[in-house]
Amino acid sequence: MEGFFEDQGCRQMGRAFRVVVRTLFAIVFIAGGIVHFVFGRSRPDTYAAFASTAAFPWLQTLWRSFVMPNIGWLTVVLGLYELACGLGMLHRRTVPVAAWGMTAFLLLILVLGYGFPAQSWMEDLLRNRAGTVAMILLLLPLGVRRAG
Q1: Which candidate in 31, 84, 123, 143 could, as Cys together with 99 as Cys, close a disulfide (CB 3.0–4.6 Å)?
Q2: How far, in Å, CA of 94 to CA of 106, rounded?
Q3: Which residues of the chain have pLDDT under 50?
Q4: Are the CB atoms for 52 and 117 separated by under 8 Å?
């Protein structure tokens, strides 16, 4: 008896899932990198909102005291990081490294939030964190190198 994951239909669905997720994350991270290049120069003040949803007071302080005064060069670094991760998703051999790089970035966003104001912890969870958890869960299967 063949195992569940040995079924040809399941393998094809797994491949389709990987291709769709890889493509979506490549587009999102490449576009995100470009946005950081543009906003870092034209609208650096938009990054200040992230401090208000940081999960820890020390992170709020760090954001206001270090990140915002240095936002110009930090957005260049972040833009390059996101571009590298996005481009990594386009090449099969680099997908696991790109997926783990994206996961590391998303873990930071999970702790930092997206800067959307919230009146309660539940609203904050829904507006600033739940989507990030979903993205991390989609990326995890890509972080494992497959044989063949």
Answers
A1: 143
A2: 18
A3: 1, 148
A4: yes
pLDDT of residue 6: 56
pLDDT of residue 1: 42
Tally of domains in the chain: 1
Phi-psi region of 115 (alpha: psi -120 to 50; beta: other; left: phi over 0): left
Residue numbers of the domain that contains 51? 8-141
pLDDT (0 to 100) of residue 51: 95
